[in-house]
DNA sequence: GTCTATATAGGGATAGAC
DNA sequence: GTCTATCCCTATATAGAC
């Protein structure tokens, strides 16, 4: 790990890397310090403890994901953008996947983050609802309010746990392939609600499927 | 915690209880010993370490869940039994939920269990496939092989993470209500595939919905 | 089988020199 | 800002008496 950039930033970058690879619980502050070849004392000069590192990483994640999630609430997406949007969410989660891999334990140990994460979950759910409402208003799909709510809940769970689940279910697969299939599995669930006569929508999904299988 | 039963069993029972409530990572062997009012030394007489406790608990879980999962592979279920079957799976997972709450970390630390858990996941997926095939053969639903595979994968994820997800999404809710909604959310996803003319199936789902909302 | 006492290791964290 | 040295605490694990 080359010594470039400010030490504080290097600590954060190294922590994120190691947490993602080994799991946050298995990485000590000393491990992080060793990785960037500074002393543990130096690390504690920049952060008063592991908590603060986690919090700083969460701050970064929160800023990014909020920005992403709020976009389609402000302004409905064009049809094709729905796909891309799901991609971006998955990518974002992938970048901070250590957080999702051991959510329960992490939120238990860092109580501060618990509420903040719950809010993100709620925002995620609202965004997915907004996506569906957009499709509905544009006449692509037809579903009742309660169907929409239930769908949004399932979709929220899907984006939250898909990557974690795949690391168990298909340990060898590449990030790209996993995310691809995650988006596809979500899009598939919309098909039952496609409004009759919207063959354009069906062919779009088919075209997307081509992309996926072509790898 | 009253001193009844053999010490070994009391250790396992107390461990399971505490792990489920506080998370495995937050409970030490001393905590367990204190809970049943024995000395740590005594605990180490019965188990050579925390690993062995975890392993023994996993053994118990594995035996139970395998028994459950294999039933419908051997012999297709009656229609109404599909509901009940999902209930039983959720209950089983709930009883050993500490395991699911921090899967990634736990499997990372106890490598032995990693392969065994992966096999359970595969079995789970096969069972859910068998369930769908049963419904299909009986003419209740219609779907292609690839649709069935994709559905089974989603369903496997659903039963694996539903309880964990709900503990974040609806922290206050009762076990009974969460499991209820978990089954319902899964059954709902079958609707698009119901064969035309099978109104009996639709009315069954409607009847089930009544139960759910009646609480 | 069970206890008390104790050893050991690792991670988190601080003090003080440079 | 950074290092070295050190401390404390907790969890795991063992030895030996009863």
How do you describe this structure in short?
The structure is a homodimer of 215-residue chains. By secondary structure, chain A is an all-alpha fold.
Q: Specify the CATH class of the largest domain in chain A.
A: Mainly Alpha
> Which quaternary structure do these chains form?
homodimer
Kindly state the percentage of residues in helix of chain A.
Answer: over 70%
Sheet/helix structural class of chain A:
mainly alpha
Unreliable stretches of chain A: none
- Secondary-structure element string of chain A: HHHHHHHHHHH
CATH topology of the largest domain in chain A: Tetracycline Repressor, domain 2
Main attributes of the structure:
elongated, homodimer, 11 helices, Arc Repressor Mutant, subunit A, 2 domains, mainly alpha, DNA-binding, 215 residues, Tetracycline Repressor, domain 2
Description of the molecule:
- 2 copies of one chain form a homodimer.
- Chain A is mainly α and 215 residues long.
- Chain A has 2 domains: 1-48, Orthogonal Bundle (Arc Repressor Mutant, subunit A); 54-214, Tetracycline Repressor, domain 2, CATH 1.10.357.10.
- Helix content of chain A is 77%, strand content 0%.
- The first copy, chain A, is built from 11 helices and no strands.
- Chain A has helices at residues 7-22, 29-35, 40-46, 50-74, 79-95, 97-101, 103-109, 111-137, 145-169, 175-188, 199-214.
- The longest helix of chain A is centred in the middle third of the chain and has 27 residues, at 111-137.
- The A-B interface holds A 22-23, 25-26, 101-105, 107-109, 117-118, 121, 150, 153-154, 156-158, 160-162, 164-165, 167-169, 171, 185, 188-189, 191-192 and B 22-23, 25-26, 101-105, 107-109, 117-118, 121, 150, 153-154, 156-158, 160-162, 164-165, 167-169, 171, 185, 188-189, 191-192.
- The structure holds a DNA duplex (18 and 18 nucleotides).
